[in-house]
Amino acid sequence: MATSTKHSGFKWTVGDESNEALAIVTPDANNALHITDANAATTDWNVSAVNNPTVSIHGATAPATTYLQLDCDGTDSTIDAVGTNLKLAVAGTDELLLSSVGLLVADTYGLVVGHTSQLTISDGDGATNLIPETQFLGSAQADGSAMLGTFNTTNTIASTLAFLKGGSATIGSATVIVADNEYIGRIIAYGCDGVDLESPVAEIRFVINGTPGTGDMPGSIEFFTTADAGETLTKALTLEQDQKAVFAANLSIADAKSIQGVSGNNKTLSIQVGSGTSATLQDIIKVSSATLLTKTELGFYNTTPTPQASAIAQTTTSAGNSNVSVGLNSVLDILSGVGLMAAT
Q1: Which residues is 188 bridged to in the sheet?
Q2: C-alpha 72: how far from its chain's center?
Q3: pTM for the complete prediction?
Q4: pLDDT (tens digit, 9 = 90+) per residue, 2-55?
Q5: Nearest residue to 26 (alpha-carbon basis) of 52, 44, 8
Q6: Residue 111 burial (CB count, 10 A)
Q7: What's the CA gap between 95 and 99, in Å, rounded?
Q8: Which residues contact 336 (CB under 8 A, 6 or more apart)?
């Protein structure tokens, strides 16, 4: 009776009897194939036995503890970097690194999900090209969306979208402070205008507002919109570092809405203006809760919550001008006539 002899190493295989191929056959004892240099040929690999044919490529300096393993068990194909990082390079340049830290993409290289290339937008001016390195692209609501999710029992722990800006050109450096008026983060929405994808629709901008220092980072949030027949963002609203809201245009209140001041006793809601020669704001209308409670009237004031006469003389508006006086007197006459202000 003939005895079958198994051959380990290089061997011509028949396959489907019409396509011979060169194969490397691993021995049944350990299913392992080791690739190393001649100096490490006698090394005790000390590698655990494997159940499937496995290729191990050993490092030159520590071949017993640093190696790359490749195997397939019929369900999963595995690449295992033992004692080393796993890198992906193109033309000799490292682009992707997988280490104990996680998945790292090299600077100037990006990630595109849902498409074959990166798309170009603008830097917010509608003209200057900007190609974001990381892009999520799709043709439906689901594949054109991104989500951050957190599952935790602590009320103060939630998903965070964070913007970071350092004053140094070195990534990770915290030695150079940012400056007043410096942009820290931007959220911009773009639309296709039939020619390109660079036209901005609106923007939310985070800006340093004041002189920053150690433990001191004054900031504002600026809101921009694009007017009809253009693609230039213009500022509409600024929430200042002192939490004042500064509108660039008229403030319009929808029907059946109200502007409410702070609740409680002796609270006031003021409307202020500044003169042409001074940055100091002066009250032209101040509504006092104490006055309304006792007299049910709208009070017009200079500096204290005491109802003024139904006419304001020009001599009492030294910080303003005659036009302001005339305008205010006209307003007072109207309010008095409709009963919104008590004549005193």
Answers
A1: 203
A2: 40
A3: 0.71
A4: 444 566 777 777 666 667 777 888 877 778 888 888 888 888 877 777 888 899
A5: 8
A6: 13
A7: 13
A8: 310, 342, 343
Rounded to the nearest angstrom, the gap between the alpha carbon of residue 337 and the centroid of all alpha carbons in its chain is: 53
Ordered DSSP codes for 66-95: -EEEEEE-SS-EEEEEESS-EEEEETTEEE
pLDDT (tens digit, 9 = 90+) per residue, 290-304? 555 444 444 544 444
> Cα separation of 178 and 323, whole Å?
44
CA atoms within 13 A on the CB side of 263: 0
The residue type of 36 is T
What sign results for the dihedral spanned by CA atoms 323, 325, 328, 334?
Answer: negative
Q: Specify whether the CB–CB gap between 61 and 75 falls below 8 A.
A: no
The token duo for 181 is 């008026």
**pLDDT for the residue numbered 233:** 97
CA pseudo-torsion sign 73, 78, 79, 84: negative
Q: What Å distances lie between residue 27 and 49, 89, 106, 231, CA to CA? A: 12, 33, 40, 70
Which run of H or E residues covers position 113?
strand 111-113
Question: What sign does the dihedral 308-313-319-325 (CA atoms) show?
Answer: positive
pLDDT tens track for 44-93:
877 777 888 899 999 888 888 899 999 999 999 999 999 999 999 999 99
Residue appearing with tokens 């499937």: 52
| Best CA proximity match to 30, nearest among 9, 48, 11, 4 | 48
Distance, first Cα to last Cα, the chain: 129
Report d(CA 288, CA 299) in Å as an integer: 7
Whether 60 and 45 have beta carbons less than 8 Å apart is answered as: no
The angle formed by the CA atoms of residues 132, 137 and 138, to the nearest 5 degrees, is: 170
Chain length of the chain: 344
Give the C-alpha separation, 199 to 219, whole Å.
27
From residue 249, give the alpha-carbon distance in Å to each of 4, 16, 34, 264. 92, 79, 74, 31
Spell out the residues 6+ positions from residue 73 whose beta carbon is closer than 8 angstroms to its own: 51, 52
